[in-house]
Amino acid sequence: MELFDEDLMKNEKTDNKKVTTIIMVIIIFLIIMMLLVIGAMAYINLTTLKVTLNGQESTVIKNMIKIDEKNPQNVYVPIKKISSLLGYDYYTGDYTMKSEEPNQCYVECENEVAMFTLSSKTIYKTLKDDNNNYEYFTISSDDKDAVISLDGEMYTTIDGIEKAFNVQWDYNLENKTMDIYTLPNLVNYYSQRLLKSGTETISEDFNNQKAVLEGMLIVEKKSNSNTTVGVIDVSTGQPILETKYEGIEYLEHTKDFLITSENKKGIISSNRRTLVKLQYDDIELMDYENKLYLVKNGNNYGVIDFNGKNVISTDYSEIGIDNGKFKENNIKSKYVIAGSLIPVKSGERWGFFNVKGNQVTDFKYDSIGYVTSNNKANSGFSLLLVPDYDAIVVGQNEKYTVMFTDGKEAMPMACDSIYMSIYGGETTYLFEYDSNVYSVTEQLDRMGYGKNTNTISNSNQQEENNEQANNENAEENNVQENNENVEENNQQNNEQQNNEQQNNEQQNNEE
After folding, report:
1. CATH 3.30.457.10 fits domain 52-184
2. Does the CA dihedral 19-20-25-27 come out positive or negative?
3. pLDDT per residue over 325-352, tens digit each?
4. Segment (H or E) for 283
């Protein structure tokens, strides 16, 4: 009996060891599995993109973007889907004409509008209170289209989103992170972090607030009844421009500052270099590509370059046209027409300079462009530029013609009107002469002017000259022949009158 009990106890001990071993194996297995799961999760977190918007993770933005698998640095973002997330409204078509063109779209916030065109690297922006003054921005895209179509929607690059929506979009490819910050969020963050309580405030001007996207803040300081303005560095809190100026306006294109002191304006760079001295009553960015500013002193206007050098002297009563009159003509710049000509007014007459400051025409035109009248039937739309030919409409004494960028007029100044017609989505350019309507482009083609060449071929020119000479000779011969006929008739009449007079005298003598 005792032997049986001893064997039973040995078996129980052996079973307990087996159970303990199995439990230990299971525990070790579970620990290994947990470590593998933790490792896998860590690996996934390291290799999976993380997107945040104003500090909050956004799976919505993460799921909508498209990343180029071959080149992950290329990222495309759907313009429509992201608009509402960044505080903008989205619309299809062109902003100026309020069209529904599927290859165009625009976004707008309370202060600004940005316009996109499919297969383009350029976006146009305008402040809503800026009287149709458009600025254009080139989107960087590694030599690829910056605005593309994917799945029936318009997409653009991160750079396009930053420029159009005024956001900061930091993409760290190595860490797989995208951190997006909107302009209001950045302004609020730095105002709480940097500004001295009660003494400084961030400029409320929308355009000035964009400086924060380049790491700068335009701040205002009130002392008694005076307000002075300066610029500080957001990373250090130290002044870039001391808070001592009457006014500062941020120039988004150049990242410089238009300053006002003692009622005079000049331009200072972010590294405190004086680019334009304080000597003008007003300064306005005129054309970024050609690096031109419009300047004003008193009632006179001129043009300077980005270094302050005179391009057109400050002697003229007006520079630039009202491009709001030519909305259907899609004129974006009021200062530079056809990419090279600047309309300048002296007294009551207009002339043209080129962007280099050379005078192209005399001051002889009453008007630039033809503005249609609502009370004239079938008058079409106002016209300034025939784009495919770079032909500009000019007028004198209520007659019109088109002029090229070299100052040459294509036709005599004899047209009663030159306008554009839009029908069935097709635009045509027409002119009226002697109560008849003709096509501008057909006439230019017939005369030998090619699209965007501004010149006429030598053979066509010779033919035209020969034809003109022949017409002049024929006209001269006709005039001479008519004069000879008139003289001969007069001579015959005189002879007949003399014969009648002689017969009358003879008859009287006989009686």
Report:
1. yes
2. positive
3. 998 898 889 999 999 999 999 999 999 9
4. strand 282-287
Query: Which DSSP category does 384 fall into?
Result: S
Contacts 24+ apart (CB under 8 A), 110-116: 110/206, 111/206, 112/166, 112/206, 114/163, 114/164, 114/165, 116/79, 116/147, 116/154, 116/156, 116/160, 116/164
* Length of the chain, in residues: 511
* Torsion 353-354-360-361 (CA) sign: negative
- Check residue 215 and give its pLDDT: 94
- pLDDT at position 2: 54
Name residues whose C-beta falls within 8 Å of residue 232's C-beta, 6 or more positions apart in sequence: 194, 216, 217, 219, 238, 239, 240
- Whole-angstrom distance, CA of residue 316 vs CA of residue 299: 8
Only one residue has tokens 């009130």, namely: 222
Burial environment of residue 384 by CB neighbours within 10 A (0 to 12, 13 to 18, 19 or more): buried
Higher-confidence residue: 452 or 55? Answer: 55
**Banded model confidence at residue 41, pLDDT cuts 50, 70, 90:** low
Which residue shows structure tokens 């690059």?
157
CB 103 within 8 Å of CB 305: no
Q: What whole-number distance in Å separates Cα of residue 275 and Cα of residue 291?
A: 12
Q: Where are the domains of the chain?
A: 52-184, 195-280
Rounded to an integer, what distance in angstroms lies between the CA atom of residue 86 and that of residue 78?
12
Return the closest-CA partner of residue 332 out of 157, 118, 117.
117
The 426-433 sheet, strands edge to edge: 417-423, 426-433, 436-439
Whether the Cβ atoms of residue 77 and residue 65 lie closer than 8 Å to each other: yes
Alpha-helical regions (H) of 59-210: 59-64, 79-83, 158-165, 183-194, 206-209
Question: In the chain, what percentage of residues exceed pLDDT 90?
Answer: 58
pTM above 0.85, yes or no: no
Q: How far apart are CA 385 and CA 66, in angstroms?
A: 39
